[in-house]
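$ fold --in a.seq
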Amino acid sequence: MTYVVTEACVRCKYTDCVAVCPVDCFHEGPEFLVIDPEGCIDCGVCVPECPIGAIYAEPDLPPDQLGFVEINARLAAEWPVIDAARDPLPEADHWAEVKDKRHFLAEAPTV
């Protein structure tokens, strides 16, 4: 099992989760964060830290978010590790309320 960052993180990029990760398995892209499934130790400490509920244990993923398992794995291999909290994106509070944001990810396939 691993943890997965889902669509809710897109255009927000809150990094509270990064600050508590004991193994630095988060990777940062321009629009959101992903978790490296190879580095994740399944501790779950990141889940309650996410202010928008964007992180799920893989078995608990909502059906419409299953594509993010592959997206996290693929983009973690391409994007750099983020190992310290940073400010969220400038309009994060607005985007936190928006649904159906997957199309903002140029790198992400439509699933």
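$ fold --in b.seq
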Amino acid sequence: MDKLTSLLLVGVGGQGTILAARILSQVALLQGLDVKMSEVHGMAQRGGSVVTHVKFGPHVYSPLVERGEADYVVAFEKLEALRWAEYLKPDGTLVVNEQAIYPMPVITGSAVYPQDILARLGQQQIRLVTCDAANLASVCGNRKAANVVLMGILAKQTDIPLATWQTAIEQKVPSRFLDLNQQAFLAGYALPACV
């Protein structure tokens, strides 16, 4: 791979964005690429936004992804997808978990959660892939594996070999959760490449 690839993984605290970023970074290392990752936690422990920047390629000098620069944005929650979609390149790929997690302003009644997020995203000049990752993960045995379902969906969008992704999961997921996560990954990978 001779080009720089830029990604954002966005979600809220507790959704496993950091593990997903570590898997993704390991995939790049296994491909012999330079990789840089930067985690921004915010109020992650209270359900706040979590954003992880990842870049990989022959030479990476900074992990930070600017607006209009991302090849991929993987959103672990719908509202986060809407917030970060502007970071995609034209015709970039947005992978969206259809789950809605209400932020505190919505819970307290001072804001309203948008009901038309997927329709709004569908009007943008991007490649959009959506799924109910939590449901797919539940079928595999645990909703918390939704993050790895999303990695399976992302893997399908890339030209990185499936075996590389599976090896990275083996190396980054604790052994007691490995079978579940491998199943979750393959469930995501089995979905159509793009809608």
